[in-house]
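Bug report

Summary: structure tokens for Fucosyltransferase differ between web form and batch submission.
Environment: batch mode, default settings.
Steps: 1) Submit the sequence below via batch. 2) Compare with the web form result.

Sequence submitted:
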Amino acid sequence: MKMDTILKRFKIGLIYLALLSIVYLYYTYYIRVLIYKHILTHKESAFKNISEGNYSVSIENNNMKYILQWTSKSRPPFYHMGEGNSAFIENKCKYTNCYVTDDRNYFPNETDFDAIAFNGMDVSGISPAQIPKLRSTKQKYVFGAMESADNFPLCAQYLDGFFNWTWTYRLDSDIRWEYIKIFDMNKTLVGPKINMEWPAEMKPLNEELKEKLSNKTKAVAWFVSHCVTKGKREAYVKKLKKNLSKFGWTVDIYGKCGNLECPRKDEKCKDLLERNYYFYLSFENSFAEDYVTEKLLNALNNNVVPIVYGAADYTRYLPNGSYLDAMILGPTKLATEINDIIKNKTRYYDYFRWKNHFVYEQADKPSVCNLCEWLNNEEKFNEFSVWNNFRTWWNGARYKINCASFKDSATN
């Protein structure tokens, strides 16, 4: 066969493949458009199944709420949201009709999503040129964050007036991302909250608990994995150890930042903590309002007095007389206080009176349910809301410190 004949057939083959590709792309796009039109136009129907080619979609047309993750889905809180409505079903949420995707082309228009969510860990890397081009008054822009504002400050001017809802650990967020729940003895959820009401008087301990508490032999424990932090807690602990040594006590540090080992989730570690230690360092890694994580539960649920360190107002989380505040006392006075309390058993017992009135638990499921519930609340969804002073709110008291060197591209 002559070479020119081979080349001719080869060219024909390429043209044929190109035509097939065009037909396939048109066909798949056409199917997506059909699905999209079906979602938007069949409001009266309940669950519908559409299956064509490689596309299969199950939708509740009159109720489904669509959430677009604009930023990375691999970081918290977004990785808790899963794909589709799986997270809402798995967590047995009150509402399961929320559908999550990070596909910006899921609908032809970004304005057709009920909510567009932005992850606090990634927002600082987004310029005004990278936000959605179109926006609808019938959708909500949601700011989601589990990590502290101190570690992830947000300083860009365009963020003021950008978000409709906040979904964070802050107690004054629109939607709460919960780390800790406080119940009364009737199993009613009572906190934490901004204006927490604690009993003026609390009942004394029973003899059984006193017996458990009386056999402790060590002063302070700390389970820690992040050795260098913005809040400089490691420097505080170094000073505390020095001051405690004057009384013959120390801080036992477990994890890669110390010389002792005991995996935090191991039940034996909890037993060790409860059996041996008077106090536990519930030290947050950074300073931010209301940033109180499940570290607090290491102490509260293992019969140890927490020593807290952070920028939160701890009266929103703990009754007076149930904890020591390292920020207020300072390392020298704290060491003296620890020693004095250990020597006075009656005084130590009083730090556990709260156990007659409250139960502390870690949030039993990711707070994805809260977001879906808000999207299903017609009154909240239809209400006009916008965070005009978002930067001041999010950064709090450390706004000027954390944003001092920031150069806003929108104003330069």
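Above is the batch result. After comparison, the two runs are identical; trailing whitespace caused the diff. The chain has two domains: 65-177+368-403, 181-362. The longest strand covers residues 277-283.
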